[in-house]
Amino acid sequence: MCDHRTLSCASSAHSSLAGYSRPTPQQREAAATLSKGKGKSKRPAPSEDAPQFGPFCAPLVLPDDELACDPEYPPQSIQEWYSDEDRNPVLPERNTIYVAAPPSIASSLSFATSWCTPKHADASVEPPDTADIVDYLAAFYHGMPVKRLPPPLLRLTHWGAKPSATPRYVGLTTATECVRLRTRASRDGEFVRQLNLDDLLDAAISLLPKDAFSLLLLVPFDIYESPDDDFACGRAYGGSRVAVISTARYHPGLDRHQSIDRLHAWPASHCQQYMDACCSEAAASDAPRPKKKLKATKVTPTKRESASLEPTAYAALSPLHAAVVAHNALPSLDAAPTSAALAALWLGRACRTASHELGHCLGIDHCVYYACAMQGTASLREDGRQPPFLCPIDLAKLLHATGSSQESAYCALLAFCDKHPHCHLFAAFAAWIRAQCATAFSPDEVDE
Length: 448
Prior knowledge:
Elements: H1 14-18, H2 25-31, H3 66-69, H4 78-82, E1 96-100, E2 104-105, H5 130-140, E3 146-148, E4 155-158, E5 169-173, E6 178-185, E7 193-196, H6 197-207, E8 212-219, E9 222-224, E10 234-237, E11 242-246, H7 272-285, H8 301-307, H9 311-315, H10 319-329, H11 339-361, H12 380-385, H13 392-402, H14 406-418, H15 424-437
Parallel strand pairs: 1-3, 1-8, 2-4, 7-9, 8-11
Antiparallel strand pairs: 4-5, 5-6, 6-7, 10-11
Helix pairs in contact: 5-11, 5-14, 10-15, 14-15
């Protein structure tokens, strides 16, 4: 079993072949700087004292990752974010994030309960609790109220005169109306039916309370966005202040069927051996190219020495190393994991995606600077490899929008993570935060 002892903060060997050119340190520093006297935000400019950070890693850019497929995706600096006229500012009278719990199912549509259950799941797992997701978002968006959408609760019901076991449409009943939702059979056969994402987002818009900055709708059903999609996991209409996430594909019972490597989820995704294996596997399966042979990254003496250190000394090397030690300290998720461990795994996945989609409601675009919670994702495999935290540039945007401080935000997240010590993601995140707060480095990363 891999122990992830040799880590890399650099992008993979595949990144250059894919055409990804990371912004330089000077460009990253400039991207984190807000010009004085510019912008149209209602809030005062951020403090001149830059937040203090430990090392941050580059995006992995493994084969088929989002940045490998779209290496020229434009970066968004804090100045560009701040000056964006389409961005919704956080105002005192409209500053609350609402979370709508999954809808109940009417008796006339009781068979739709089976739509939430994957056909090939190899384990029965307790789904994420809405209350836990609300608590996580309250910590992540510290400085903004985060509340559960008050009653009346949402309900999925039949649409039309005669219920059908394979309906083209179902209805989502809200306090004021019944919204029509398109459905279809799952293209890959993993679920019985899927709901249309665009229809769910339109329904979410109708749910927005007057004091809402944004609203997140949670659904346990598989969803799709376009006719060509197999599935989707979430989407935000940032300008309309709404987001939807589906927890269906994050079901741990699907991991083997979907080729998800639990052992190399973040922070272990930065394991050098794993990164090299991903690149070699892709090169071997792509016969015509590349003509240039991929080489495993050379292990420097520093890396060899670090691999032999005791856990305490190893953890002191960087926040990433501390996170990996915490990750490794918990029982393996591949060797007969408990039901509680799988439920925690599912919760962590849902929380990370929820925080990402709501970030778009704040006007934060996909990140190309660092490994970051606001990175785009092209697959479920990539999804699990990404960190739960924001990079220095996107954290500066968040703190400016919420009016919170780095210290307060990290303390809130740490308090949440410490309530879930048996969750690999949250245990690693807690160790990362503690190490981050103990450092006094400038906001850059260690690439060696």
